[in-house]
Every structure is written in structure tokens, then in C-alpha cells.
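Sharing in case it's useful to others searching the archive later.

Someone asked me privately for the predicted structure of Serine/threonine-protein phosphatase 6 regulatory subunit 1, so I'm posting the question and my answer publicly. Question first, with the sequence:
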Amino acid sequence: MFWRMTGLSTASPVDSILDKESFTLEELLDEDDIIQECKALNTRLINFLRDKAQVEKLLRYIVEESPEDAEKKQSFKFPFIACEIFTCEIDIILRTLVEDEELMDLLFSFLKPDHTHSALLSGYFSKVVICLMLRKSTPLMNYVQGHQEIITQLVDLIGITSMMEVLLRLIGADETMYTGSSETMKWLEDTNVLDLIVDKFSSSESPEVHANAAEILCAITRYAPPALASKISSPSFVGQLFHHALEESRPKSVLVHSLSVCISLLDPKRLASASYQAYRSNLSHGTVVTASPETVDGMLSSLGDLLKLLEISADESTLPTTYGHLQPPFGKHRLKIVEFISVLLTIGSESAEKELVQQGAVKRVIDLFFEYAFNNFLHHHLENILVSCLESNKSLLTDHVLVDCKLVDKILNSEKNPTLSSDPSKPTIPTEGRAPPKIGNSGHMTRIANKLVQLSNSNSTIQTHLQENSEWSEWLTNVLLKRNEVENVYQWACGRPTSLHNAGRDSDEEDMRDRDYDVAALANNLSQAFRYGIYSNDDLEEGQGSLDRDDEDVYFDDESAEVVISSLRLSDDNDSSSLFTNSNWFAFEDDRGGSSLTSPSDNTADDAPAKVENEEQDNEEDTADEVILDQIDKVAPFSDDMETIVLGNGPTKEANGDDSITPEVASVEPEGKQVVPNGVLENETAKDDATVTSPDPVSNKKEEVADFEMEASPKVEPQMG
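And my answer, the predicted C-alpha cells:
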């Protein structure tokens, strides 16, 4: 057990079993505490489990299916516990496994074609093998090197995600594997594992197989050993990918996932992410693959065949939607082709740019943008394509977009007709009997138009083209500028969430680091603010009751400060008493330069009237308190033999006409005592002039007011001071 203290812990059920003269492995596996005891390194238990016979039984639970008539715990619980025992990473048990070839043969017999491969046992097998990769890398790789049929068997089972993960780590395409064992991976560079994986695109019809094969290949482009990385980026390998992708008899999933591999070779964002992950993991064996000009040329050779798949005239499929129906739907394969074109334009290859312009790829994508007005994925990729072309400062791309593709004219025509066209020859048709909806790409058109205006300030070609179009100038003045003004969330009078001001940040942590205020200082200010009750004018009990507490009793942590910050960020930015400064909140206006507020507990009877008089000038509730006092005087005159009361809702004037003001108190005092400033009770009948401090007048306010209501009589008159 984890908790082992003399006299406090009870005997573990596992120890009770181990104390028996004879027991079985199944008895231990049936105990819920066995995993806990393994992690606690129970010596007797580990010595029992390290035995070869027991390790073999544990392996059989993992690699062999239970009979159909077996109990549930034998089919589910025992295999799970056996897997968990291995993944506890107890060195002596793992050593027993990897140093015995018969046990290793039993473990990898799970991969044989004549064996059943359920998802449950496949997951257990995967966890055990990956544990061995992490803790016993060299013995495991030596065994696999001597039994290379394991690689082929894993590729055959690539459709099972658990097996794909084993293969992914086995060939070194995982950022966390073999960080210090690069020598053990060299033999994999001479195998044909890449060819075996690519052949799955042609030999299998399963989309799961295609997806898992593409995931492994994409991982190889980021983390694989140098030899494998250079092989996957070779023109011959890329040509092999496109050969399988463009076969008409193959399902579209082959095309989609083959292009995913090509995109992973080209996409600089993915490469930058891989570089960061490699740096973070301190990898020395992996290299980030950069596409060579030969690789790009190999991809461009199949560009014409890809663009043919963007034609929709021969496709007769129909997809009903909420706004109408699509004939045909755009489809994943066309979207992946557009993404591939977008990535080709980001690598800065002149040959790729010339080929895309010559083949009319950009023009075709622009047409699809207006034909499929509700496909935001397509709109996003087109925006990236146009930005890459316009920001390249290359006249070839800029003139092609503005002149050949007539981008500005198409935007203006679409703005003139902002509703969905009812033309049956279009791929997007609205529902009959309903008003056509507004097109869904207006937002992207606005972003593209704003990008043109922005780039026209630095690009004379774009500026000249826009100035020559009088219709554009009119639309810019009457529509675009007004739309930008309306959609500028920073100018909305109703206020917006503060996160919009930091929308470009990558994480909340960066947002916290770059705030313009000191959270610690704010938390300290808030602690003082609520300690002195300056935010609780209506709740005097809470405010005054906190006066006698120590600073430790009133504490605001950073999270509490953040909550208050969020509620105050929408306040007037011109407020001089901003919460986001380290100024002294508690100094009066006349004393803000150097003096600080004195604690109320230090006030004396002499300075209390002056303080209350100052408060009377700022507190509008004083007048209401006087009115309430007058009403009490009229309704219920008090007798002389009853208790004296002073209302504590604010300062009041003396009833005898004296201009002096009493401090804020609210108490019912015994007969014969009067209330003097600063809340000190003086006993008139006492033989000496000693004063007695009254109890907290606010804490008992409710009880005393209740007593006053019960004991008040018509003969009592108010007595102030």
C-alpha cells in the first residue's frame, strides 16, 4: 500500500494472498489493489510476477482471445490488469520479457495473419510494445531487426489505429521516441517500409487504411531519420504517390490522403511546427524535410490531371442543404486540390507559379469561389491564394489576378446581386418557393477588397488598376468604407469583449503577460478596498465589521483580481481613478499628493465631526436620513424614560438646533447613558468621569432596531448627542 505507517495501516489483500501456502496468478489479478502494490514496489509481489511462468501467463491474457464461454473477468478484467502490470515499467519484469526470446515470440505472435486482432487486445498489445520501446529500446530493436517480418505484419495491420501507432514509433517517426538511440535505427533505412506503406493506397479499399498510411508518411516527413526523410521527398516517391492518387478506379480517399502527404512536404507552417517540436523535444535523430526543386517539379507534372478533377459538369450527384441543394457537392477531393494549389503558391517556386498561371488554376478557383457561395473552407483557401499572389510583388501573379481573372469586376458584380442566383445551371440552387438567401461569401469578399486597398498603398500596379476602375472607386466610397465603419467592433458604443483587442494572440498566457496593469498591485488594492468597505455603502454591517480584522483576513489573490478586472474593463477609459494603476485609491482628493487615509479605528472624538462633515458633502443619502428622522419624530414621539436612539444610516443634525454633527452610529443605549462622538458611552450616574467603550454598534444593529420597535412608546422624544 502507499500508506504504510505502524499502527495505522491495515494488511493489504494482496499480502494476505501472498501469505498463503498456495495461490494462483488469477487470485492476484482479481484483487483491485494489485496495480497499487506494483507501483509501491511490493517486494514479494514483484518476485512472484518476475517468474517466467507468470510473465507468460500475463502475455497470454494480452495476445490470446478468451473462449466464448469464459467469465467476463477473464475476458476483460484479467487482460486489462496484465497490461497495466507491464506498463508499470518495473524493470525486473520487463527484463524477464525482453531477455527471453520465447516470451518475445509469444508477444509478437499477435501480429500473425492467422491471429484474430480485436480492437481491445490490439490496444493492450500496443501499450506493452510501446513501453518496451521506451524502457528497453536496444533489446527490442535488436529483436525486431532479427525478425524483420514484423515490419511487414505491422504494415498489413495498418488499418488498426493501435498497430499504426506501433509502426509509427518503430520506424522513428515519433518526436518522443529514441532520443538517444539513433544507432539502433540505421538498419530501418535500408528496408522497403516506405514502399510497403505507399502500396496500401493501391491494394486496399478501406478509407481507414488510407488515412493511417498518410498519417505515418506525414510523420516521416517531420521526424524520420535522414535516410527515410530524403527518400520520401524524392521525385520518384512523389510520382508513385500521384500515380495511385490519379487512378480512376481508386476511391477518392486515396487522392485526398496522397495530397495530404504532398502538402506536408510543402507547407511551411507544418515545417515550422515540426521544427519547434523537434527543438522542444531535443531531438537529434530527426530532420525537417524541405521540398527540393526536383520534388516540386515532380508534383507539377501531375497538376493538369488534378485540375481536371475540379470540373463539375460531368458530376451528376446532388446534395440537399438547408438553403437549397448542390449539384454536385464540392467534395473533399476538390477541396484538397484547392488546398494543394494554395500551398504551392506559398513556397516561392517560380516554376510552380508559372505552371499555375499557365494551367489557369487560380482562375478556376476564383470561379469556384463564386459558384459555391456557402463553402467557407473553399473561401478560406482562395483568400490565401489571392494574398500569396498579391503580396508576392511579382507582376506575373498580380496581373494574372487583376487582369486575366478580373477579380475586381467579379467582386463588384457579386455586390450588385447579393442574393443566391436561381439559375439551374449553377451548382448552388436555392430552395423553390422561398426567397433566395444572401450569399455566404460576402465577408471574404470584404476582406479581399480591404486587402487590395491596403496593398495599393505600396504596389503601384494594384493602385493603378483600382484607380482606372471608376465603379470600384464609387463602391469603395459608398459601400466598403461605410461597411468597415459599421463592422469596426472597436468603435461600437455598446462595448465588446476585451479579448477582441488581443485577437491575434496565440494563448491566454501571452495575453496575461502583456497586460498593462500589475495584477499583484491590483490584488493588494482590492484587499484594502474591501477591508475599508469603500464598495459597500449599502451594507454597513459587512463594511464596518471588517474594521477590526487583520490584513490577513481580507485577501484577494490574482484570480480574484482578474474577475474584478474583467467586470471593469468596459468602464470609461477616461476615468481618472482607474483601477489599472498603482495610485493610492484611499487618499482624499486634497491628500492624494502625499498623505494616506488614517484607519477609522484611530479616529478621536475631536476629528470625527470634521470627517463626517466632509462625507456629508459627498453623500447624497444624508438628506434622506434627516427626512427619516423627522418622520420618526412626528409619528412616534419618545418618552424621557425610554432608551435613547441614534440612527446610523448617516450623519444627522442635533434636534436642539445645534449645527454640530454626530458620527455614524446605530445603537440603542441603556437609560442614563448618552452617545458622544466617536461612539464612546459616558455613564452620567458614575461617581467618576471614566468612559466605557461601547460594543460594536454596527454588528448588533438589527437586534437593537428590533428591540427599539418593540419598546418604543408615544412619549419618547428623540435625544441627540
